[in-house]
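Can you please make up a whole protein chain along with its backbone structure tokens because I've never seen that pairing?
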Amino acid sequence: MSHFFNIMIKNITMELVLPRFKLVSAVLTAWMIVILGAPPAKAVCAAPAPVCAAKAGVFAIQSFHPTASATRIGPDLLVTNRHVVANQATVRVVGPNGAHLNATVVPSSYPGDLIVLRVPDLPPGPILAPIQTPTATTTLRAIGYDVGRQAIRIYAPGQIIAIPPTDAPLARVHHDAPSQPGNSGGALVNAEGHLLAIVAAGGEGRHDGIPATEIERLKSLSGPAHRYAHDQITLAYRQCMAATDAAGRGRRPLSQEQLAFLDERCRASKNRQLLDLAAQVFGRRGHFDKSIALFTAALDQDPNTLNTRLSLVVTLHLARRYADEIPHLKILINTLPADVQVLRFAIQAGTWGGAPDLADRGMALLKQHHPKLVPLAERFRNTPPPPPQGR
């Protein structure tokens, strides 16, 4: 077997490709909780003036996840991610002067990763107005709580790279603007300070947010009448996250009962991030068919998510289903033409999966972006070993 293949297998791990989602672990050290209560640090704002003004509409919060963010959408209303709150009934909000304010979670049957918080004592301040998501390439910035700086922070600008397709109601805005754990529930704004999306998840320089236009749908599906559906959804969130955390601490195959519970609970959440994380656990435990099915469900919900598609390719490769990788790699090689992992998969799966055109394109891009790897890849292409048999 060629050295190129050995390198490939050595580098294929579920952790390598999957994003470091902003689903911050519920078990964080006590010092994080302490610093969240600290007053925001004073700093000169280098962003455009409307963006600097919008910063006052984003707050640090504590709930199921002890470090997260929320965005102001009304005099006494904030919006954040449902995964930040899970099934908690109350949230702690850090006000502009560092004071701790109590917020209540408004029950909602909204199926996406958003929830409304009511904060009766919220002092006056800017309300961020949602606008229609513009076309791709629009410049935007994330605003959210920075654990290291102990303050709300405006991050460096980036661009929208994909907007939700019209036939995918839970799809997200995808962008490359920097953000980090603790930003979940924060704002994604344009240069005029208008709210484009709510920060949700991301990793490896590829991030996403819930379109701000969904806030009106969220409001219409919120209130006491939605309590039963709310309780069912939030329970699924809590159980999925707990089961994923527990299952992620081992490597042995799961029992049938564990498989069924994790699969059903995470699917019931309808949250693409949770589907991804559960699929990651299944792949790590060797349940490739389950992993592939969950990644596929996540892609059906949000076809533009590159991290999910790349993770699916990893799992298909580990399962030695090379031909099934081809359609996904043809998308990835167009969107990530310099990604060495994508190019290695394209060369290998293209060779073994019956798509020599894909392998040739992978070789050409490897020569352009990673010339030092070309000799190994050429040896593989010139005398490819037989593909390992399926599992």
The longest strand covers residues 195-203.
